[in-house]
Design brief:
CATH architecture of the largest domain: 3-Layer(aba) Sandwich
Number of helices: 10
Number of strands: 10
Number of domains: 2
CATH topology of the largest domain: Rossmann fold
Distance between the termini: 30 Å
Strand content: 15-25%
Shape: globular
Order of helices and strands: HEHEHEHEHEHEHEHEHEEH
Largest sheet: 6 strands, parallel
Strand order of the largest sheet: 5-4-3-6-7-8
Amino acid sequence: MVERALAGISNIYIARDSRTSQLIGDKSRLFPDYAFRGQPLQSRAANVPSAVRSLLVVSLRHDRLSIEDAPTIDAIGRYALVHGLELKFVAQVREDSDQNARLAAWHGASFDAWDFGVSHSLIEERLAETYTRATAVVSDRLHVLILAARLGAIPIIFHRPSVTKLPDALDYVLLPQRIESGDVSAVFRTDSAEHKRIEDRIVVAAARMEELDAELVEKVAVSAGTKSSSDQPAHAAPCSVAAGRDAQIDVKEWSQNGK
């Protein structure tokens, strides 16, 4: 297993999801995904009245959509109608644009199109404006849910039983609600208590990332020889950080690029 091999030669191995952490064992440290890093973004949304959070946003992966999802997406549309919310589809990933555009057209909903003529930063800014006006965001993309939650929306996992990535990465951090693909009803909470619960968990996640930053600074200093440490393995390679099963970050590069 590649992850175990990496853990064996690293000073520190960070897993972003509970499943990887359990597979690696004692050498692994469980921290939230790096998208939680930095101050929570609710301050941006603090001046947005609750009445303005009138959107129910949906963003689904292009490569996992199937006919079994249709009744559940219909149910989400009915939920928006019953609760007086505007249904909007968005694409945070370029490849998802066509599928979400078709879903929006099918449901008579608005759509935030991926604009190929502008920068990624501007697209992210537009998405942030949408999430700031959303009471909830339903998605099967991890970073859609994280960004939306950091901007004050309630994250709802669009869950498929065969895909464990989102629950593994989010349950221990946010314990988000979920909608099961294939369900003919969509029931979830969008009340002020749920908003507050998510906000509190975002604050805790950001604090955990500050702890990780401090630990990485310590490890980099030891690796660079500017600080001694009694727990530095004699055979250790330059610090390597793994972000779950999908990525790893070399801490030397991380330190050069800035915190």
